[in-house]
């Protein structure tokens, strides 16, 4: 298999990298003064597990995400676009810290940004 056939998931180091990224990332999010309060009642162990499955799938690894639909999971939480940006900033810092190549970081952020529309807005009564 040539490099160009390899998925982004494999190229960045597969499961070990995803585990590290998601664990480090939620450490940052939970200690963020703006974002942290969203997670006070969260089931963090499940959330990390679901996020690992989702990242794996989004980056071309096994397509086995078993969590909620993202719109349903975030509906009624009142998450603003600015908060999604802040969340994504923490992801960027994590990917830099873990030492991914610049082009891989850009690609990961691109894939995650594609999901962010499902996260924003919506009151409990929406739809
Ligand atoms: C592109 C951005 C995001 C992605 C891909 C994402 C992904 C996920 C996933 C996979 C779950 C788990 C669903 C399940 O349990 O089945 C989840 C839950 C959740 N997310 Fe997000 N999320 C994003 C952005 C955000 C932001 C910006 C916030 C708040 C600032 C947020 C707050 C939450 C909360 C509070 C839960 C529920 C946790 C629980 O009650 O156990 N998410 N998200």
Give the gist of this structure.
The chain has 127 residues and is mainly α. It has six helices and no strands. The chain binds protoporphyrin IX containing FE.
Topology record:
Elements: H1 8-11, H2 14-30, H3 44-58, H4 70-74, H5 81-98, H6 102-113
Helix pairs in contact: 2-3, 2-5, 5-6
Task: Say how many strands there are.
Answer: 0
Rg is 15 Å
N-to-C terminal Cα separation, in Å?
Answer: 46 Å
Low-confidence region ranges: none
N-to-C order of helices and strands: HHHHHH
Explain how this protein is built:
There is one protein chain. This protein has helices spanning 8-11, 14-30, 44-58, 70-74, 81-98, 102-113. By secondary structure, the protein is mainly alpha-helical. The chain has one domain (3-118): Globin-like (Orthogonal Bundle), CATH 1.10.490. It is globular and about 40 Å long. The chain starts with 7 loop residues before the first helix and ends in a 14-residue tail after the last helix. It binds protoporphyrin IX containing FE. Protoporphyrin IX containing FE binds at residues 35, 38-39, 42-43, 46-47, 50-51, 54, 67-68, 70, 73-74, 77, 79, 83-84, 87, 112, 115-116, 119.
